[in-house]
Amino acid sequence: MLDIRFIRDNAEAVQQNARDRGYKVDIAKLLAVDSERRSLRQKSDDLREKRNQNAAKMKGGQPDQALIDEGKQIKLELTDLESRLPQLDAEYDALLAAVPNMSFDDVPIGGEEDSVEIKKWGETKTGALDHLDFASNRDWVDFERGAKVAGAKFYYLKGDLALLENAVFQFALDLLVKQGFTYMTVPHMVNSRTAVGTGFAPRTSDQNDEYNIEGEDLSLIATAEMPLTGYYADEIIDAAKLPLFYAGYSPSYRKEAGAAGKHTRGLFRVHQFNKLEMYAYSLPEQSREIHEKLLGIEEQIWQAMGIPYHIINIASGDLGAPAAKKYDLEYWSPVDGTYRELTSCSNCTDFQARNLNIRVRREDGTTDIVHTLNGTAVSLARSLVAIIENCQNPDGSLTVPEVLRPYLGGRASL
Question: In the chain, which residues have pLDDT < 50?
């Protein structure tokens, strides 16, 4: 969430930022509730002080009736105020939680179509067999039995394709570990505080993308970003330890609510897939540099595999609530003759960390809110799509990118 003090001082800018990002929030109402809430709290504090003074006067003898009557009146007024505060607090919390992060100045304003290409890499080609047809011809994937067991958009990977997925993961993990990332496996479920604190709250009820566990305060994670953010909740990190880099591996579970009309064939958009996520905690003054570092690692991974791509600076209306700025790396699809999303990386500044009370203690003893960043190293289902589309051969074989061959027993093709 944003700092309420920042919102008070920059109400017009915060309202315009929310409007640019497509969020319907009422900053004037938030500030009115905030003011009323603070006023009631001050009145409650004043009445408690008055109650204490009244009680002190009644000690040491028989109090006169005026003091007794005053004490009763104070109690009535305090009870009334304290009964109104919980509802006001709930309204305040809901209004504040709906306000998205402030976008950086260099974020394009507009919707998805207004995102700006900033770089291209690799030679593009056209004319390839769709990844699902190619994989099905090799008996590498089974969506029919996946649907029988779990429902539509669940699947089995088989044989060489499952081995290829593992090779992509192992290659990316080795690269991250060599660059100083700490490898972590993570809980596959998080409580509501962690989910909401990370920023996984839908704009509307029909956009809820998480699977919730009925009867428990738990939901399946949509990304390892969620438990990695919660790792330091309510803790203070020494400044000397920052930045901290983690590589979290987990399945990702998504309803894909609101995905109608987007590219959905085969493995591109599914309800469960494996992902290796990069995550960083940093000092506020470090986060822009670290954001570029995460993007550079994503490029390094896909350049090593020889997959053509471009980088886009995501427009404000497509950022999501936590990110101040986000890059998407989109691979070139020779099947569709266009670029399609493969990875992303976001600078969430202090938005998530404030929600979860994650702070840093600086050398002078003062504390500050840390900045958090995340980036996809490899989203494995989409990684397979990109490799199949770009590395297939007319004879039905698949050329294995050279960097993956050591993880496949040296095999050059599948």
Answer: 203-205
